[in-house]
Amino acid sequence: MGRDLTEAYQRLIFDPRPPGCEIIVGDALSVLTGFPSNTFRCCVTSPPYWGLRDYGIPNQIGSEFHLNDYIDHLTKVFEETRRVLTEDGTFWLNIGDSYTSGNRTWRAEDKKNPARSMRYRPPTPEGLKPKDLIGVPWRIAFALQEAGWYLRSDIIWYKPNCQPESVKDRPTRAHEYVFMFSKSEKYLYNYEAVREQANSHGGRRNRRSVWAINTIGYPGAHFATFPPELVEPCVLAGSNPGDRVLDPFFGSGTVGEVCLRLGRKFTGIELKEAYASLARRRLKWQ
Ligand SMILES: C[S@@+](CC[C@H](N)C(=O)[O-])C[C@H]1O[C@@H](n2cnc3c(N)ncnc32)[C@H](O)[C@@H]1O
Fold first, then answer.
1. How far apart are CA 74 and CA 62, in angstroms?
2. Which of 78-82, 118-122, 234-238 is predicted with the least confidence, judged by mean pLDDT?
3. How far apart, in whole angstroms, are the C-alpha atoms of residue 123 and residue 144?
4. CB-based burial label for 127 (10 Å; 0-12, 13-18, 19+)
5. Quick one: which atom of ligand 1 is closest to the CA of 224?
6. Of the ranges 116-125, 196-205, 260-269, the best mean pLDDT one
7. Which residue has the higher pLDDT, 258 or 57?
8. CA 192 / ligand 1 centre spacing (Å)
9. Does the CB atom of residue 283 touch ligand 1 within 6 A?
């Protein structure tokens, strides 16, 4: 009893993790099944994109050979996400698109960072042609609608500093999507907290659905991280201070950083220990 008390006291003094904030290393789907229903007020996440990056670990999402397997896999994770959200909860999903690979079946190795891109290119999905834009985000959005989610908004994340592309037969892609879903017809949306400036006299208006935000990488993360500025409005609109927020694909912990700043609790799930460790360092937990 005395020893328990001492340990609890030491944790109180030395544990840098605020109560209710945690990082769990494991597979998103298996970890989520262990949570009771109605646990989180909001989920903000950016899953691995299809066939793009190799995180170098078994069970990683995004390495499915066929597009439909990728969509099924994600739909299962997000059906569990729906169960663990409160009835008035919202889900904010950042996802980007890609093109069919044509007849190329492999990708040149990234010399600077071999772990970075998939070595293979997935086959052209049935019904599509070489050079087609796949429409991955919308395919996922429709699958989630069918699974019961309310699709409430497609938000365009416009990236003013996007990567240049060596194409001359179409515009350079400068955007990704953030889809806003709700679990029920009525849900928490803190309209006031996310209003935007309307004019130079300080007037404010309802936030618009195009958000111009520069990309910024997180040092040490060899994968796409989303900028805190993109996460902030999602957390502000979808939760109140003290609420629990979920990110099942935690990566370098951007959602955790934003939650700590905004006084929310959070649970981050990450498959790869090395990335979880990066996130712990970012949050100054180790
Ligand atoms: C696009 S990154 C997320 C980046 C994150 N939003 C950030 O800002 O750092 C996707 C993450 O999902 C992780 N991941 C891949 N498959 C997973 C799975 N089955 N369960 C949990 N995490 C997984 C990858 O290791 C990677 O860190």
1. 9
2. 118-122
3. 23
4. exposed
5. 1
6. 260-269
7. 258
8. 31
9. no
